[in-house]
Structure to design on (440 residues):
């Protein structure tokens, strides 16, 4: 399972976001005009079908946006082609790019893949820099999809600002504070404070429960909160010398050795069961994770969970995607208009309301459906405020073409430390061998 936001994070609704309603007028204001003469995909009556290929759950269908777009543009119909697993979607996308055929008018791209696409396939996509208003996005999001020549090949859909989800009932039973402000104060010093809180939990932990689900998730949060991660600005892998990787690994090894973690592979059956049975007290929580917890913990645990800010004063980003327009399409102009509309503030707010993925377009943050959003499942946590605050403190990080491979390899070995008792040195050596073989 990839440590960047997984398809599992896209597949599920996000726990019934409670907001004020988006008005039809707000949606209409960002509608676009009819078909362009520059597009060649229209039929004899001028009707165009735009194809949008994506993976998991982008939320457009759930938010009713395709139908709304057709109302605004009666001659345009959007047809979505969704692949359940991103790991199956991406190889197909590369194959289509290499062959120059089979591409949709709009293609979704995962953040863990965007650097590789920018480096190797940027010329295959239309430059959106003048179409989407890159200044509307959080700055680091736009830069992730920007080629060296300044071309922006993808419009940001969502981001995954980090928070901390915790089980209030288990905290109370362990004698810990349950108020989200008090929990935040206990971890304000960073992830070291988080582990110290874990040791307090362990002293009075209900039998059969653990402080956290996965040390690999914590590792990812630590690394993702730093501008220096797995590559330097020149594109050279530096994961073996990266200060954030070293820190994250040390903390993960400590969590494993102190038995603070249940050692679960996130999103797998055992992890789902742990949420249902309330055996884990905390889960590192990018915005989309709330949907995972509420779905698998189920109705019986509604109100038992809460959300607070991530440990420390620097947030992290875990996940997010882009919409890109292949140059080879017959409907490039209309596809570009669709991408602009789907990623405008009002539409991103509508998607957030529908499935809980957080907007990358800053213009959405002051809209009522984002700003005033709460999650009833999580004790009415003010997620709009929590995630917006987190988004503002996410550092601009250098991405690498094989970030996903590196994260997966390290995550596997952290899991081995947790479940098999593998020593930190042996686990690290195994991770390095796997990574070096994969990235050359």
């Amino acid at each position: 399972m990839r440590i960047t936001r997984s398809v599992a994070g896209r597949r599920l609704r996000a726990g019934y976001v409670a907001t004020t309603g988006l008005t039809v007028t707000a949606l209409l204001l960002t509608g676009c005009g009819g078909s362009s003469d520059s597009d060649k995909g229209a039929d004899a009556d001028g009707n165009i079908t735009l194809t949008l290929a994506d993976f998991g759950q982008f939320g457009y269908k759930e938010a009713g946006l395709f139908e709304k777009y057709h109302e605004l543009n009666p001659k345009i119909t959007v047809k979505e082609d969704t692949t359940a697993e991103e790991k199956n979607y991406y190889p197909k996308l590369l194959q289509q790019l290499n062959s120059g055929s089979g591409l949709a008018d709009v293609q979704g791209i995962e953040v863990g893949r965007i650097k590789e696409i920018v480096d190797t396939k940027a010329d295959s996509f239309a430059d959106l820099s003048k179409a989407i208003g890159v200044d509307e996005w959080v700055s680091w999001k736009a830069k992730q999809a920007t080629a060296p020549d300044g071309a922006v090949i993808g419009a940001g859909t969502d981001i995954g600002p980090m928070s901390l989800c915790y089980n209030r009932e288990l905290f109370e039973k362990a004698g810990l504070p349950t108020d989200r402000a008090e929990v935040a104060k206990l971890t304000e010093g960073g992830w070291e404070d988080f582990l110290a809180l874990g040791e307090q939990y362990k002293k009075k932990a209900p039998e059969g429960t653990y402080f956290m689900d996965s040390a690999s998730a914590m590792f990812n949060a630590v690394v993702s909160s730093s501008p220096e991660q797995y590559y330097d600005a020149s594109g050279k892998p530096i994961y073996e010398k990266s200060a954030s990787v070293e820190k994250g690994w040390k903390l993960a090894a400590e969590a494993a050795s102190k038995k603070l973690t249940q050692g679960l592979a996130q999103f797998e059956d055992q992890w789902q069961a742990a949420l249902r049975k309330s055996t884990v007290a905390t889960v590192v929580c990018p915005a989309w994770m709330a949907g995972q917890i509420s779905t698998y913990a189920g109705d019986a645990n509604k109100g038992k969970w809460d959300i607070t800010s991530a440990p420390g004063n620097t947030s992290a980003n875990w996940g997010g995607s882009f919409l890109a327009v292949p140059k080879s399409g017959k409907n490039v102009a209309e596809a570009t208009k669709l991408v602009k509309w789907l990623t405008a503030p009002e539409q991103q707010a509508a998607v957030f309301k529908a499935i809980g993925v957080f907007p990358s377009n800053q213009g959405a943050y002051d809209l009522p459906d984002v700003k005033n959003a709460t999650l009833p499942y999580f004790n009415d946590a003010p997620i709009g405020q929590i995630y917006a605050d987190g988004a503002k403190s996410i550092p601009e990080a250098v991405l690498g073409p094989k970030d996903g491979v590196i994260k997966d390899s390290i995550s596997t070995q952290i899991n081995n430390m947790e479940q098999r008792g593998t020593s930190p040195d042996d686990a690290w050596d195994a991770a390095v061998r796997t990574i070096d073989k994969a990235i050359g």
In short: The two ends are 22 Å apart (CA to CA).
